[in-house]
User: Fold this.
Amino acid sequence: MLSETTVVDQQFEETVRSLFEDADSVLIVNPAPPVFRALILTAVESDIDLPDLKVLASSDVLKSAVEDFILASRVADLVEQEVLTLRTTSDIARNSLLVSDDLVVTVITLDGKLTGLQSSDEELVENVRTTFMDEWETGDTFSLRTPPFSRVKETLDEDFGEDVKDDFMMVVESVDTIPGEDDELDEVAIALLVGANNEELLYDISKWGEDTGVASKATFSRTKTRLEDRGLIETEKVPIDVGRPRLRLVLVPNDLQDIDNLAEQVTA
Assistant:
């Protein structure tokens, strides 16, 4: 999420859109987390044919940027579409740069807002692009473990139906970020709450999560226990023909007001 003191200036958004529209390839160098987020969201929300987007950053910067499930899954969509490639390097410039064939944009924070200083000087553009393309060629590929957002949505619909998919999307689209698994409302907790709202089996939800790459069955099990301990969900045994009974997830009635109102949207 953008910090309280750093927002995306409308002019910066327009600069990015214009750059994407006019360029065949854009090299994105050392994007700060707010810059990376703004670029990715601009790309996924755009209805134009996107250029080839190459990101060159330190490993720590990219790891920090994709800790949020929403952003990481959007990044994964662009990677799967072969629009975006992520590479890391240990030696990187301090400023965030956007470099096309004929333009360099230096991204700065001015009065708490992101903005871009542009230059179309041919010699400068050529020198900057050559320098960082050399670093790009020797950079290491950065791999994502988060599944593409489109796959999450599609498989929810295929495996559980429209109600489960719509519940999950309603919660996800109501927040700006979904942090890692230690947060009360990470993607695993949301999936379990949605499953409980629709009385799905724990086995089915956790298998879906592991198959799609959202999280392991063990993570789903730990999160289920945490939600049970907080009195948000409970389970009912469902006998099966062979083996141990399966567990059906069920919401605890009228007891979800203490998780920032997000779960209330699931139970509406």
Summary: Strands lie at 7-8, 25-29, 52-57, 84-88, 96-99, 104-110, 113-119, 140-141, 233-238, 246-251. The longest strand covers residues 104-110. The first helix runs from residue 10 to 22.
